[in-house]
Amino acid sequence: MLRKTWFLALLGGALGGAVGHAFAQPVQGLYVSGNIGVNFLQDETIAPSPALGTGSSMAAFDPGYVAVASLGYGLGALNPFLNGWRVEIEGNFGANGFQNVFTGPGFAGAVHGSQENYGVLANVIYDITPSALGINEHFVYPYLGFGLGYEMNSFNGFRIDYLTAPLTASGGSNAVGNFAYQGIVGFSFPIAFAPGLSATVEYRMLGVADPQGAHHLSFDQSGERIASGNGVFGNEFNHEILFGLRYAFGQSNILP
Known about the structure:
The chain has 256 residues and is mostly beta strands. It has one helix at 2-20, and strands at 29-41, 44-46, 57-61, 64-74, 85-101, 108-127, 141-162, 167-171, 176-190, 197-208, 214-221, 224-232, 236-248. It contains 1 helix and 13 strands.
């Protein structure tokens, strides 16, 4: 009976050790990831335009969608001292419908169209050791990151129909952009039956510097062009909630 007890204790210790090291470093080497989710775009300022006859104003947006694809590398594959650090390049695309635009000579009756965003950023990410936070190590990996790059946007189907006059504002299909930056907070959940595959949940705050550039806009009354000018939008702040999958190549459940 005593020998059997010792055998079970040793077996339990071995299995516990295997589980404890099952995902000792979630990403080493090359990986790819894809995310989709919802984007909440804060109100944007619009600078005065003498050519259009408009003063300082604001644009408000409906919640929209965003998609992100990334190619990265876990630096622990190069040096054990770099375990946890990752670098990646991402491409993103998203859109938010216009809710209201507070500009022009009267009250907007209907606002149509959306603002589309797309860009490329380089990110640096650190996977936090779960045991340092009292988290079961093979279950979840928190991570933090930041990124720098360039974002562009254009208007798709933008039009304002005013209530107080037979007047329509439209345009903005030209692409404008500026320097972009973002902060990343995420959690990855390794999928035990698929080595290298993890589910991810993230929050990203993506900002675009002011000014973003000049959207070409115009006012038409009864089908006749009466004014043309530029609409210059200020700082842009996107709040993104993303769900996705990440696959690290050449991974195994039990790492040395």
